[in-house]
Design goal:
Blueprint: H1 2-12, H2 16-19, E1 27-28, E2 31-35, E3 42-46, H3 49-57, H4 77-91, H5 99-112, H6 117-124, H7 129-156, H8 167-178
Antiparallel strand pairs: 1-2, 2-3
Helix pairs in contact: 1-3, 1-5, 5-7, 6-7
């Protein structure tokens, strides 16, 4: 159950309040669709193989995927959060691997993989691009900087100034660039 909680949080980006009510009834044709509790946005997330394997390996517990040791749905998002924190401590995972930390990690991984602001908004149920921009801004800067460096490399070749070049050769090299 702890592994299902971890995978569900990481691969879907659901908030705790949504993860505790998500179940098999929300999946159709490999897509989990749920109206999130915070802002009522409809979120549709593809269930990829890693998460599907974990779902298949976890015994059914009623309508919700996640259940207490007694097989009942969690009474609240907070009770699930407390349960999940204890499982994380037992496993010795870092504090960042708590429920909200996994949501942030998933968004960061998606952004680093090339997800756009709009894609993150759709997956995480964010209504404002500002939240998604937090995750894509740093990644965009890294990508753009690398791309800028590639332009220099493509224009100049591997060595801007050849080893042992005389000052006159260097002046000629830069004069040619201005043309």
């Amino acid at each position: 159950m702890a592994r299902l909680a971890l995978d569900l949080m990481l691969y879907t980006g659901l908030r705790r309040s949504d993860a505790v009510v998500a179940g098999r009834q929300h999946i159709k044709d490999g897509v989990l669709t749920i109206r999130n509790a915070k802002n009522k946005a409809i979120v549709s997330v593809t269930i990829y193989a890693a998460l599907q394997r974990t779902i298949d390996a976890t015994p059914g517990t009623g309508l919700a995927f996640l259940a207490t040791e007694h097989g009942r749905a969690f009474a609240s998002a907070a009770s699930f959060g407390n349960w999940f924190r204890k499982r994380c401590q037992e496993a010795g995972v870092p504090d960042e691997c708590r429920a909200h930390g996994l949501r942030k990690a998933g968004a960061t991984i998606a952004a680093e993989g090339g997800a756009t602001t709009r894609q993150l908004m759709a997956m995480y149920g964010w209504r404002s691009a500002a939240t998604a921009d937090l995750y894509t801004k740093a990644v965009d800067r890294q990508t753009l900087a690398a791309s800028a460096g590639e332009h220099i490399e493509n224009r100049m070749g591997p060595h801007l100034i050849p080893e042992g070049a005389a000052p006159a050769d260097i002046n000629n090299e830069f004069r040619d660039l201005k043309k």
